[in-house]
Every structure is written in structure tokens, then in C-alpha cells.
Amino acid sequence: MGYHVDSEVGRLRQVIVHRPGTELKRLTPANRHELLFDDVVWVHRAQEEHDLFAGRLREAGVEVLYLTDLLAEVLREPQARDHLLSVAFDEREHGRAAGDALRAMAESMTTEEQADLLVGGITTREVLDRIEAPHSVTFHVRQLDDFVLTPLPNHLFTRDTSCWVYDGVAVNAMRKAARERESVTYEAIYRWHPRFATVGFHHWAGGPVDGRATVEGGDVLVLGDGAVLVGMSERTTPQGVERLAARLFAAGSATRVVALAMPRARAFMHLDTVMTMVDVRTFITYAGLEPLPSYTITPGDGPDDLRIVDHAPDRMAATIAEAVGGPVRLLTAEQDLHSAAREQWDDGCNALAVAPGVVITYDRTTTSNTYLRDNGIEVLTTPGSELGRGRGGPRCLSCPTVRDGA
Q1: Model-level pTM greater than 0.90?
Q2: Which keywords annotate this record (predicted)?
Q3: If you average pLDDT over residues 339-360, what whole number do you get?
């Protein structure tokens, strides 16, 4: 199979999702902010909601791949297993004695158990249920319920860490420390999993650590015909946008990147929290989204040169229209300030297109859903009262790996 994502709204063929598991059971009122959640999650209900979401995808003809299945499968590959466990139990994090002991403990597990460990984390108490306490100061200073390996609850939002742009994938360096190890998971899957290892595709990002050059998939919209829209948010930096653009241009996979300078605020965490595509040249946007400064990036005269044109905020829509080759339609439901803010917080603008003019949204965003229907968009709803507690909607929950052009 050739992996490619040629638009935001063309027929969706395949996605990677992550069903909630042990990692979400680790959330507490005390650690939720550190782990980037606004609330603790009722995991059983979140799993039910996720199953319904996956069912919606299958009903639309989409092949659904589960991240933990891919991870367990790639752990059967010796190189992948060595890489993943070496990063998880690095002596710089755990100390030499504890690192070796923890690595040996993990090696004794089945691949399914290893996958759950790498995503769900493990506490001191749980380690001691399996092995004797390592002779290590690093280990001994931990309390029984301290995390020895921190869980990765944000793996739920598969879009951010891995995003496909035309004929390549960006395994992104994540902005927040709580998400850094997520990149290692995808790096191993794309490098060693038999499903991907034998297929040629480009790699647009430099891996888990790239300094300040961070890009997250929630900020990246594939407009089609060689154009890409990127939000420079609290998670995606200008340095990351320039690097992404340069690599896309060097491969001939894209010809134009439009970057939007977004407010640095939790409510504007990613571009797709305030704007997503729902049909050809059609976007749903948050009522509180003011016109933003934009920058058109195109290839320069030399192989490493970029040509950059600045645009005033009132040119935002026109700049996007130039990128997509025609007039754009911005659908913004009319609401009072308070209603609009609540709807956006509930991911009303985070629609996932499964075909042109057909989207999946959360059922609780009734105003946005009604407005989309009134404007000719077919809306398939799915429950999200628990899934949305980490501030992510259906687009965030999915990493498309195969999507047609629009």
C-alpha cells in the first residue's frame, strides 16, 4: 500500500487511532495538568465512546488501525524492541543499576505487556510486584506510587505526534515534555513495522528531539494541490514551520506553505481547535477567531532558500484562497460570546472529514452541527463527553495515513 494524504477532505481510507487504556487510569486531580488534561477521565465511558467513534469510521469505509496493536507487533522486531526499551529505561533517567534492572524486567514481558508498559507507564509499587528493588539510589528515593515510567495519556490524540503530508510523514518533536516519548513510539513503528518498513515514503521531521523546531499535527492542514496550512500556535514554532516547508519543497511534494500567527493560549492550542476543513475550499471556524497575520512560504532561488511574503490580518482569507486556487467559504455559526466559547471548548470546530462534505463531530456541539447541516455539510455525530476532556475532537483522535485528493 502507498501511504499518502493528499487533502483534508478527500475520501479517507485509513487511520491510526488509540483506544483509551491504562494511561488514562493514571490521571489524578494532582497530576492532570502536568499530563496536559483539564480533568480526570471516566475511562470505561471513554472506551465506549472511542469504540463508537471507530465504528463511525468503519461505517464510512475507513480502515482503522490501533496504535497499541502496531506497537505490540513492532516490538517483535529485535531492533525496534531494543530501541524502544533503551529509550524508556535510559540510565540518564533511571540510573545505571535501576535502568538495567528495569530493562531486564521489561524484556521478560510479552510484547502486548511491553506495549501496555510503554504507553501506560508503571509505578514503583508495580515494579516491586515483579522484581526485587534494584540497588539504586534513583529507585530507592521514589515513593511507592511514584511513576517509574510516566504514562502517555495524550497518545489518545494520534494526530499530533504523527501527521502525514502528501507522500511523507512528520514524526514530530513535541513541545511539551509530557508528550516527548510519544514520538519514539511512532518513530519505531514507521521505521521497523512490516506494514511500513517495506514501503517508501518521505520523513518530514527530525524525530523526537529537534530543539525549538517543533511542529504538531493539530496545526497542519493539507490543503491539496501542493499547498499546506500551518498554525504557529503554543505548540508549533516558526522554526518548525520553516524546517517542514524546506523539506517539503526539497522533495517536490509541496509548493506553498501558509503559516498563521496564532494567539498563545490554551483555547487556541492547535489550529484545528479553531479551524478545520469540512468540504472543498470550505472551513468551519470559531466565532472568536480574529483575522490573523499570515505568511506565504514558497521555494527560493537556491536549493535551501525560502521566499517569504508577509500578509496583514485582513488578508488571511485571501491568502488561504490563493493557496487553494479559488474562493474559500468560512462557516462561522452566529453565537453570543459565551456560547461560542463553550462550543469551541467542546471541540465544535474539530471536525474530521471522511469524504468531501461529510464530517464526524461530537454530538454535544449542537450549534456547530446544525450550522454545518444548514450549509450543506453531512454531519455524522459521535459522543465525546469523556474523550474531549483532554481538549481534542474527532480530528485530534485520528491520524490519517491514506486519504485521497479532494
Answers
A1: yes
A2: Arginine metabolism, Cytoplasm, Hydrolase
A3: 86
